[in-house]
Amino acid sequence: MAAETFAIQVCYASDGAQFLRDLQVPAGTTLEQAVALSGVLQEVPGLDLGQLQTGIYAKKKPLDTILRAHDRVELYRPLIADPKHARRRRKTPAPVAE
C-alpha cells in the first residue's frame, strides 16, 4: 500500500529573490520538513530558518506544525521598520519651509 501524499506550496519573496515551489509530500510532513524538501535554503543564499518567521496562509505557525493538503508554507522576512511607526511618519505632515 502506497503512502498517502498531497500537494503543498513553499514560498519566499524578498527584494532580490522570489521562490515558489509546488511539492508532493507524505502525510505527517511538518512545516520544517517541507522547507527542507523545497530546496529554498539552498537556492536563496543567506536564509537562516532559525531567524525567519514561518506560517501557512499568512498565519504564523511553528516549524513542528503538521501540514495538510493544499497548504501554502510561507517564510517571512524580518521587518526593517515597525509598521506603526512607519504609518505615523507617513501621516505626520512635513514641515513647511518659509
Return the CATH class: Alpha Beta
Question: Over all CA atoms, what is the radius of gyration?
Answer: 18 Å
Structural class: alpha+beta
Strand fraction band? 25-35%
Quick one: biggest sheet? 5 strands, mixed
CATH topology call: Ubiquitin-like (UB roll)
Mean pLDDT: 86
Spell out the helices and strands N to C: EEHHEEEH
Q: Please state how the strands of the largest beta sheet are arranged side by side.
A: 2-1-5-3-4
Tally of alpha and pi helices: 3
Q: Give the CA-CA distance, first to last residue.
A: 80 Å
**Total domain units:** 1
- Choose one word for the global shape: elongated
Q: Would you report the number of β strands?
A: 5
